[in-house]
Amino acid sequence: MTVPLITLNNGVQIPQLGFGVYQITPETTVEATLSAFEVGYRHIDTAQMYGNEKQVGEAFAKSGLSRDEVFITSKLNNGFHAYDDAINATNETLDKLGLESLDLYLIHWPLPEVGDYVETWKAMEKIYADGKSRAIGVSNFQQHHLEPLFAETEIVPAVNQIEVHPYLTQNPLRAFNTEHGIATEAWSPIAQGDVLDDPALVTIAQAKNRSVAQVVLRWHIQRGDIVFPKSVTRSRVEENFALFDFELSPAEMETIDGLNKDRRRGPDPDTFNYIPE
Ligand code: NAD
Hints:
Layout: E1 5-7, E2 13-15, E3 19-20, H1 26-39, E4 43-45, H2 53-63, E5 71-76, H3 83-97, E6 104-107, H4 117-129, E7 136-139, H5 143-152, E8 159-163, H6 171-179, E9 183-187, H7 199-208, H8 212-223, E10 226-227, H9 234-239, H10 250-257
Parallel strand pairs: 3-4, 4-5, 5-6, 6-7, 7-8, 8-9, 9-10
Antiparallel strand pairs: 1-2
Bound molecules: nicotinamide-adenine-dinucleotide.
């Protein structure tokens, strides 16, 4: 099964389906990531905040895969938005992962009431210019967080990684991203399991002889978003990868689009200003 590649605004290509490692403990991350590589995943989404970059790096080193076969994303942690802090934090991330450069590096949250994310983005531009990441982007940025970047900095983010699932379809922000050449990455693509009992989704899944998780992930793929579901259960890791031998009809896509409740599982980027200890 071949995972489609999405071409980002600087020409770098990213596999549309990856493996997310949020809430995977450091003790289990090496095994879980190696297992994902075995299943066929070649794109890993981690973050400094997840505390498992070192173990993702260990898994990659053990995998026997070459550097250009694997796409690795990490994210700048919330405590390091000041320019010099951002540069130092990136060097630490690269050390932990054991890499010379990332494939994609994101500002994890805008933190509108803490510091100045425009300054942080200028540090990201420097990180990119120095070859420490092949592409740079943001996460959890609303339209009004992106606009100052367009006005005051040089590089348009390659991606915006935001919460998206059938209960939070995010169509206006996704359209804004597209209009500006920014690829949308959908985090918590199955709403951390919250959507799995939805009757409309269960009906589609039964008709397709697929699981609800597969139907929802396929919906994301057909909408063109990049996804990286998380699981440490091998059968689910396999299930979440088996998305390319079936298709949802336009009517099924429309039914799922109609489930939107604008309901977040995670924090609201406009009010989230958390800095870890
Ligand atoms: P998710 O929507 O991927 O759901 C994960 C949970 O769903 C798992 O804990 C598992 O219990 C369950 N699950 C997974 N596959 C299943 C299946 N086939 N059947 C039944 N249950 C299944 O949620 P997530 O982990 O929050 O999001 C995925 C990734 O997105 C993360 O690992 C991380 O990489 C990223 N993320 C980013 C941010 C951000 O702020 N940028 C925030 C949250 C997550």
